[in-house]
Write a structure and sequence with these properties.
Elements: E1 2-11, E2 14-20, E3 27-31, H1 38-50, E4 68-74, E5 80-86, E6 93-94, H2 107-110, H3 115-121, E7 123-125, H4 126-138, H5 143-152, H6 157-171, H7 181-198, H8 206-258, H9 268-303, H10 315-323, H11 325-356, H12 361-366, H13 371-415, H14 422-428, H15 434-461, H16 480-522, H17 530-553, H18 559-581, H19 583-628, H20 638-673, H21 676-685, H22 696-755, H23 767-815, H24 824-880, H25 889-919, H26 925-934, H27 937-977, H28 979-1038, E8 1043-1050, E9 1056-1062, E10 1067-1069, H29 1075-1096, E11 1102-1105, H30 1113-1125, E12 1132-1136, H31 1139-1149, E13 1153-1157
Parallel strand pairs: 3-12, 3-13, 7-11, 11-12
Antiparallel strand pairs: 1-2, 1-4, 4-5, 5-6, 8-9, 9-10
Helix pairs in contact: 4-29, 5-28, 5-29, 6-28, 7-20, 7-28, 8-25, 8-26, 8-27, 9-24, 9-25, 10-24, 11-23, 11-24, 13-22, 13-23, 15-20, 16-19, 16-20, 16-27, 17-18, 21-22, 22-28, 23-24, 28-29, 30-31
């Protein structure tokens, strides 16, 4: 399809603009400056052929409903269609009268091309060209990927295939890894399966569980009442403990306040006013002293600064003269230099006069050529050089065209006869689906092997493991009810064992704690227990018995007997007194002894209960193992075996699915084997050896490669004949262009002789001589102007310097006769320095006088404030203490200090009473003092220690009771809800769904990667030879003969790679090519593909957008030749904003190019 006319009726910035393409042109160049609408016209072609998109950027001038495009197109068979396109959703194709056309009216002209294919394959810009070159480096020049990318415009195929493989490996691989999603789902499935075993709902001792919860609640209520009593008593004692130090501080403050009772009472507000008056009085006296010192200092400073008014009166004249000193000195320096520059310019003019040949400077200035004459000579110089370059280029192009014509003639002669491969292609079409069946067979076989391995792994992971899944159905396994019964029995006994263990541990902990307290208490001084006291009293009574008998009988007693009695009596009294003094400690020790006896008895009972439960569990486990002996298995816990039984059912179902997949694989294998006979017949017809009995896929690829080779040879022969005719026509056109250039040379020579007369040169002068003369004449006007300007500047400097000297002499004579012999600038600078000094002293003296006046005013103000402050202080004192009204200020300050200290003590006492109210929880102070008097500090501490021990024992008992109740309640909630096993079952189902999704995603990704690789391989096998041959010829043209074509190399893995064939011999890999040469190779592959496509279907126009923006002029010319070379089969349209591209196209292609300007 070719565009004959493009009408931009209402589109973007265009209104009623029509672009007509010349039908006989082999290349169309659309030239438009930046912002001229080139991009708009480029987008218009796409919207015209495939319709406006939903949103468009080109409705900024015309409303969307009014957008219109029109065109006339011509098909390869000569059919034409004139149509228009409007913006809309349906029936957008219309004719000139706005009547709708069928939606498929363009289908015969587009040949089934979609918008995406058109933009990618039939459109190319400089950025895409450069990206395509880089893509060939990324795939390391692999033939299939390079041809596929260049032909389709798609890039990143290698990265896409690698990404698909990496994503598939992230889902599943034979080696297990935690980051793979398949194994993550498998792990969740195993976890849920174990949870089902552990959390199954079971019936049990429901009534006993409720009784246990109720008993624990009653014990907690009783314990709560005891803890409230202990907490109340502890709060009272803690309150007394907190209040005691505060009460002591209040009493100490009362004593300090009473110590200064002789001081008169005064109101706190008056005390504050007295303090403020004292502070003001002190501040006023200090300020008066500072003001007096400042006045004396200001007087001395003002008298020490002299003034000089003499120079001040003529300050303006001195400053004016001083500002001109630099100009005077600069003029003295610049004047010799300017005069020297004027002399040099005169010498330059003399040299120019000699070069040009004028008799003197006046005649030189009068005979200058005009700007038009000089411009004419410069233009003719450029034209002459351009003409010479064109002659040289045409001669080279004509020689190259003749050589190409002769070479192609030799190729046609050497190729001989070839045969059309179309019959073989038609015979190969029935086997087109064989590749799909091979891929499906391989994928199914891989899936069967993977599922078999997974099934084997799952069976091996079972506990106990299963070696043969088929034997599972024949095993005499216990039923699910039997497993549930044993599970209920053993789980119930283990819960009883846990509760019994907790009670045993709690009893042991309580007994250990009691023993620890007893040891710690006995580690100090001995405790006066009731047993010790009774023992000592018995010894005393025994010692008194002999004395009683002697007294009754009237006998005298032995001194030793009396002494023994006295010692026994003393020990009994001492121990009784010690027991009375340490009553709390003795009572606590006795209570702990009683508690320890009860705790030891409870511990022994708990040990007996625990041993009985252990015996019952052992009997149940033995019966459980006997139930599995017929199956020959050593069972795990009942919960695990229940899940094991469910897993075995899943394994049997999976084995059945595998059998179905094996049947489908065998069916595919039969259909694949049936294709061997047709393949053998095609091998013979293609001239190949009979296919072996090996891999049928490799045989099919070998046959396809053979057919592609035959096709490439046939197409190459056809193509070479067409190129020979084109090369002959090109040689003739270039020869005619050479003749036309000779006539242009003669006309230029005549203009050249006439243009040299104003320069005074002969007609035989060369352009280089004319350039020298022009260079000299260009300099003359500037030199003449420069000399005149320098002379005027020197005269002005002399005038200014004379005026400055006159003014300086007058000032020195009037103000500083001592400077009469000093140079003018030095005298003026000295006068300026004296003036600056005088002005500074004048300003300093004025500032000091002002400060003296301010200091005098400040002193008078300070004295007034001092007197007022003393009067205010006297009045304040007289209000409350008249006898101190006339006292000195220090005496008044001493009384104020005593009053202020007493007020601070009273405020602190008030604050402490507030703290006491907070510490006493709001109780009256009298009640707190009564409580403190009743209990000494040591009694409070002893009682708090006893209550703390009692609270600790209550907390331990509460923890044990609460733990028993919490465990029982959680167990009851679990039995009531029964959600543990259901949640685990749901999680297992979710994990199974994730496993299925992961398997499906893995299969899709693997198939996509395989299909992408197969597509590249088939593209390489089916189109490799003809495309590479044609692309090599275009590559030779694009590189100007630097490369003669393309060749194939093979790497270590026998992968075919593209390489460039240098004209001097040797191959260059894609990665070794320069960036510009890679761009040329990519363009050659794209153009070869478009030509191949045009031979098989209706092609669309090829649109190039600033395609050669990165090319130099030589490469641009070669590229234009290549575009024109495909113009016979595909319409190439090049959009550009570079005018030199259009000029190069006109120079190289002549009438074969159609240049249009927007």
């Amino acid at each position: 399809m070719r565009l004959i006319r493009l009408a931009l009726e209402r589109y973007g910035a265009f209104t009623d603009r029509t672009v007509t393409f010349r039908p006989d042109a082999r290349l169309h160049v659309v030239l438009g400056a930046n912002e001229a609408g080139k991009s708009t016209a480029l987008a218009a072609v796409t919207d015209l052929l495939f319709g406006f998109e939903k949103t468009t950027r080109y409705a900024f001038l015309h409303d969307m409903p009014l957008l219109r495009l029109g065109a006339e197109v011509e098909a390869a068979d000569g059919r034409r269609l004139a149509f228009r396109r409007r913006k809309g959703n349906t029936r957008t194709l219309i004719d000139a009268a706005e009547a709708p056309l069928p939606d498929d009216a363009l289908a015969p002209f587009l040949g089934g091309i979609s918008r995406t294919v058109f933009c990618r394959a039939f459109g190319l810009d400089a950025g895409s060209l450069r990206a395509g070159g880089r893509e060939m480096v990324d795939v390391e020049g692999e033939v299939g990927a390079s041809l596929f990318a260049a032909g389709s415009g798609l890039r990143g195929l290698t990265e896409l295939q690698a990404a698909l493989d990496a994503e598939a490996e992230g889902i599943f691989a034979p080696r297990q890894a935690k980051h793979r999603t398949f194994y993550q789902a498998l792990e969740r499935h195993e976890t849920a399966r174990k949870a089902i075993r552990e959390k199954g709902l079971r019936a049990g001792d429901w009534r006993a569980l409720n009784d246990e919860i109720a008993a624990a609640a009653q014990q907690l209520d009783a314990l709560r009442a005891e803890r409230e009593r202990v907490a109340t008593e502890r709060a009272r004692l803690e309150r007394l403990k907190r209040a005691r130090p505060i009460v002591a501080e209040i009493d100490a403050l009362d004593h300090r306040i009473a110590a200064d009772a002789g001081l008169a009472e005064a109101d706190s507000a008056w005390i504050e006013r007295l303090g403020a008056a004292l502070e003001r009085c002190r501040e006023a006296e200090a300020e008066a002293a500072r003001a007096d010192a400042a006045l004396a200092r200001a007087r001395g400073e003002a008298e020490s600064v002299p003034v000089e008014p003499a120079l001040i009166l003529r300050a303006e004249e001195i400053l004016t003269a001083f500002s001109g000193t630099k100009e005077f000195e600069k003029g003295g320096t610049d004047l010799p230099r300017i005069e020297g520059d004027a002399h040099k310019v005169g010498l330059d003019l003399e040299r120019l006069r000699a070069r040009i040949g004028a008799p003197d400077l006046a005649s030189l200035e009068a005979s200058q050529p005009t700007d038009a004459a000089r411009a004419r000579v410069e233009r003719l110089i450029r034209d002459g050089r351009t003409l010479a370059a064109a002659e040289e280029q045409l001669a080279r192009d004509a020689a190259a065209a003749r050589a190409e014509r002769d070479r192609l003639a030799r190729e046609v002669e050497a190729a001989g006869a070839t045969h059309d491969p179309t019959p073989l292609r038609e015979a190969l079409k029935p086997l087109a689906k064989l590749h799909e069946r091979l891929a499906a067979h391989e994928a199914l076989d891989t899936a069967i092997r993977r599922e078999t391995a997974l099934l084997r792994n799952q069976a091996a992971r079972l506990s106990p493991p299963v070696a043969d899944t088929a034997a599972l159905a024949r095993m005499p396994l216990p039923s699910a009810d039997t497993i549930a019964r044993y599970r209920t029995l053993l789980d119930g006994k283990r819960r009883e064992q846990e509760r019994a263990t907790d009670r045993r541990d709690a009893a042991r902990a309580q007994a250990d704690a009691t023993r620890t307290r007893l040891r710690e208490r006995e580690a100090g001084r001995p405790i006066a227990t009731q047993e010790r006291l009774e023992s000592v009293r018995a010894a005393r009574d025994a010692a008194f018995a002999p004395l009683r008998d002697a007294l009754a009988a009237g006998r005298t007693t032995e001194p030793g007997t009396l002494a023994a009695y006295e010692r026994a009596l003393f020990e009994a009294d001492r121990l009784a007194d010690e027991r009375a003094a340490d009553a709390a400690r003795v009572a606590a020790h006795a209570a702990d002894l009683d508690r320890l006896a009860a705790e030891d008895a409870a511990l022994a009972a708990a040990e007996r209960v625990l041993a009985g439960i252990a015996d019952e569990i052992a009997e149940g486990e033995a019966a459980w193992r006997e139930a599995w002996q017929p199956a020959g298995l050593v069972p795990g816990p009942p919960a695990e075996m229940a899940a094991w039984l469910a897993e075995t059912e899943n394994l049997i179902e999976a084995e059945q699915r595998l059998a179905e997949q094996r049947i489908e694989r065998d069916h595919l294998q039969t259909r694949i084997e049936s294709a061997r006979a047709p393949l053998a017949d095609l091998f013979t017809r293609a001239g190949l050896d009979p296919a072996p009995d090996g891999d049928i896929g490799q045989a099919l690829e070998r046959l396809e490669a053979r057919v592609a080779t035959l096709a490439s040879r046939w197409e190459a022969n056809l193509e070479t004949g067409g190129r020979l005719r084109a090369a002959a026509a090109t040689a003739e056109k270039l020869q005619a262009a050479l003749a036309e250039t000779g006539s242009r040379r003669a006309a230029w020579q005549a203009d050249w002789a006439e243009a040299l007369r104003p320069l005074g040169l002969p007609a035989t002068a060369r352009p280089e001589e004319a350039e020298g003369a022009l260079e000299a004449w260009r300099t003359v006007p500037d030199r003449l102007a420069e000399r005149a300007a320098l002379q005027r500047r020197a005269a002005g400097l002399r005038r200014d310097m004379d005026a400055f000297q006159t003014k300086a002499a007058a000032l020195v004579e009037a103000l500083a006769p001592d400077l009469a012999d000093t140079p003018p600038t030095g005298a003026i600078r000295t006068l300026h320095a004296r003036l600056v000094t005088a002005q500074a002293r004048e300003a300093r003296r004025a500032e000091l006088d002002r400060r003296f006046e301010e200091a005098d005013t400040a002193l008078r103000h300070a004295l007034g404030l001092r007197d007022a402050a003393r009067s205010d202080l006297t009045r304040q004192v007289a209000e409350t203490m008249p006898d101190l009204a006339e006292a000195p200020t220090p005496a008044i300050a001493e009384v104020f200090g005593r009053l202020n200290a007493r007020e601070m003590l009273r405020a602190e006492r008030l604050r402490l009473r507030g703290s006491l109210a907070g510490a006493a929880d709001g109780l009256p102070e009298s009640e707190i003092r009564a409580g403190l008097d009743a209990l000494p500090p040591e009694a409070v501490e002893a009682e708090l220690a006893r209550l703390a021990m009692e609270a600790e024992e209550q907390a331990e008992r509460g923890q044990v009771i609460f733990a028993d109740r919490d465990r029982a309640e959680r167990r009851r909630a679990e039995l009531e809800g029964g959600s543990g096993a259901e949640l685990a079952a749901a999680e297992r189902k979710a994990a199974e769904a994730d496993l299925q999704a992961a398997s499906r995603s893995w299969a899709v990704l693997r198939l996509a990667g395989l299909m992408l690789g197969q597509a590249v391989a088939r593209h390489r096998a089916g189109q490799q030879d003809p495309l590479v041959a044609r692309a090599g010829a275009l590559f030779r043209a694009l590189t100007g003969g630097a490369f003669t074509g393309l060749a194939q190399t093979y790497d270590e893995a026998d992968t075919p790679k593209l390489a460039g064939q240098r004209a001097g011999g040797g191959l260059v890999g894609i990665e070794a090519l320069s960036e510009g040469t890679r761009d040329q190779l990519y363009l050659a592959l794209r153009l070869a593909y478009l030509e191949d496509y045009a031979g098989r279907a209706e092609p669309a126009p090829f649109i190039g957008d600033d395609l050669f923006s990165t090319f130099d002029e030589a490469r641009t010319g070669y590229g234009l030749d290549a575009l024109a070379e495909i113009g016979a089969s595909v319409q190439p349209i090049l959009f550009t904003h570079h005018r030199h591209v259009a000029e190069i196209a006109r120079d190289r292609l002549g009438d074969a190019v159609d240049v249009l300007e927007l």
